[in-house]
Amino acid sequence: MNPLVSVVIPCRNEEKTISLVLDALRQQTFPSEAMEVVIADGLSTDGTRKAIHAFSEKHPQLTVRLVDNPQRVIPTGLNVAIKAAKGDLIVRMDAHSIPNADYVERCVNALNEGKAENVGGIWKISPRNDSWQARSIAAAAANPFAVGDAHYRFTDIAGYVDTVPYGSYKRELFDRIGFFDEKLLANEDYELNARILQDGGRIWLDPKIQCTYFARPTFGALAKQYWGYGYWKAQMLKRHPGTLRWRQALPPLFVIGLLALILIGFFWRPGWVVLAIVFALYLLVQLIAAIRISLKDNQLMLSIGIVVTTLIMHLSWGSAFIVGLFSQPDRK
Predict the structure, then answer these.
(1) Which residues, given as ranges, of the chain have pLDDT below 50?
(2) Residue ranges making up the domain that contains 271
(3) Which of 68, 115, 141, 269 is deepest in the core (most CB within 10 A)?
(4) The whole model's pTM is what?
């Protein structure tokens, strides 16, 4: 017999995509009768709940349960859903990601084989719409020059890693190491993975476990997203300083370097020249990488958008990380 699997989804105002996620879960190769979906809704004000109820009425073979997440943030939603879950295995999913048909089955098999305490796969980044900005952001999100060695964005090699998107776990894991940290509004998954590793556990990434992730549609939305990532990464690292990776250190160092050269330029004019050279070299490296990426899809015009996207990622993430190191969030 298959173990009961609980797919947990935190969401808020996801009317446009929640039905897509549920339909993808309905079509999983893992049997529906051995699976439930627990959605922790952050008191949505759009048609999210209506869409969930409509799906449940149309497809009663897949059990979908809706629970409230009054605090309206992802880590509390995850914890509410996990505590309400009835399954022995927990598979985390996102309200704007579409899992491949064999996603749950592959996660369950890897967990049952004892591969790791957390099993996950890769993101296939997709644009939210067909605009130039959205397509540029999606292309850059799979660029190692933009995201460093975050293997879950581009690798085709299975192996042990320090984090995976979403993740799947045995329910007993949370009884042993605790739930998601509700004080972190982002990077709550990375923080949980840090505790798994500290507990002697392992994290397994299988590139055959795939889901499509819809990237942010505009540069403004991307900047806001990466500001949050950087700020909350700093808060997470205060708890687990040993988890800092080189890819996370480079953006704040880049920002500090630019600010230092700007300051030096006011007192020593050659500083402006050094700044111009450094920034030009940065743009050149990014442009070369962007051209290679855009040519793969015969969309050369995306190369400029990829460079802009990468610059936004690095400046937003790096600046917020610095701010986060020297400030405390206004949360209890």
Answers:
(1) 332
(2) 241-325
(3) 141
(4) 0.86
